Amino acid sequence: MVGRREDAGVVERVDVAAFREEVEWLAGLPTRHSTSAAYGTAVDRVAARMVAMGYQTRRQQISVGAKSSQNVIGERAGADDGVVLVTAHLDSVNHVGGPAGAAPGADDNASGAAGVLELGRVLASGSWRHGVRLILFGGEEQGLFGSKQYVAALPPAERNRIRAVLNLDMIATRNTTTPTVLLEGAALSQSLITTLANAAATYTGLTVETSLHPFASDHVPFLNAGIPAVLTIEGGDSANANIHTANDTLNHLDWAYAADILRMNAAALATWLEPIPRPRPAGPIVSWGPGRIDIFTTG
């Protein structure tokens, strides 16, 4: 399968060094437990990154049990009314150590959160028919609180605007001999899964596995509300014994593998967002030579 020009353009713009820098910063915090002060530090960082990329950014207050946390939302309008969501959870957890325990969450889910920022950066330089909305959720590890409350607060008209939801959760640990990615959704997201699988075959060496039995990540509330959503997650994720512990550290990550998942996601997003071709001036081009401005004659 040959990639389209606009797909190839966004794939080429994926910068693994920029992605790695964000993962390292997030995993460098002592924890990103949803109700911790350090989580607030992470929120400030990612909100500033969205603003710097040109997204209109806001914070949504959510409840996590008796305490509070935040979702971070960045918006970039398209030419039409539709919108595509790129989501991940920002929080981390240490099940044994509790809220005060070390929870670097390098794979779960600094990798997904940094992936949303990198895809947002890549998409910010394009011209799209539909809008881009980046969302980083809090409270995922305590029971999908951020995504459940976000979806519950959406008016019907706003739900109808959403063309696709791409959720990233654990994209940087290679648990299988063959690099594998799991695409998880439901029947209403089958077309999204197909687009992602085609993108993986075109631009990466990933082996694709699929599931129509959604489970335990932030795509689930969208699917329950009838909104097409899909999760991209590392293959063999159940074999990753480091998550939810102090051992979910940077040294377990495979940057080249994560970059392939990001390239697959970028190509699929370009399809769902529908690029707007840049207009070409009418008339022949009169070139003035190297280093000079080309002149387009129009009549």
General description of the model:
- One of its GO terms (biological process) is proteolysis.
- This is M20/M25/M40 family metallo-hydrolase.
- GO terms for molecular function: metalloexopeptidase activity.
- Residues 71-267 form the Peptidase M28 domain.
- Keywords: Hydrolase.
- By secondary structure, the chain is an alpha/beta fold.
- The protein has a single domain, classed as Zn peptidases (Aminopeptidase), CATH 3.40.630.10.
- The protein is 36% helix and 20% strand.
- It is built from 9 helices and 10 strands.
- The strands form 2 sheets. It has an 8-stranded mixed beta sheet with strand order 1-2-4-3-5-8-6-7, with helices on both faces. A two-stranded antiparallel ribbon has the order 9-10.
- Helix 1 (5-13) runs antiparallel to helix 9 (255-273), helix 2 (16-27) packs across helix 4 (106-124) and helix 7 crosses helix 9 (255-273).
- The longest helix has 19 residues, at 106-124.
- The radius of gyration is 20 Å and the shape is globular.
- Mean pLDDT is 93; it is low at 286-290.
Task: Order the strands across the largest sheet as they lie in space.
Answer: 1-2-4-3-5-8-6-7
* CATH class annotation: Alpha Beta
Counting DSSP H or I runs of 4 or more residues, the number of helices is 9
- Give start-end ranges of low-pLDDT stretches: 286-290
Euclidean distance between termini CA atoms: 40 Å
Identify the CATH homologous superfamily: Zn peptidases
SSE class: alpha/beta
Percentage of residues in helical conformation: 25-40%
According to DSSP, the number of beta strands is 10
CATH fold label: Aminopeptidase
What's the pLDDT, averaged over the residues? 93
Largest sheet: 8 strands, mixed
> Nearest-angstrom radius of gyration?
20 Å
Domains (count): 1
What is the strand content? 15-25%
Question: What shape does the CA trace take?
Answer: globular
CATH architecture: 3-Layer(aba) Sandwich
Order of helices and strands: HHHEEEHEHHEEHEHEHEE
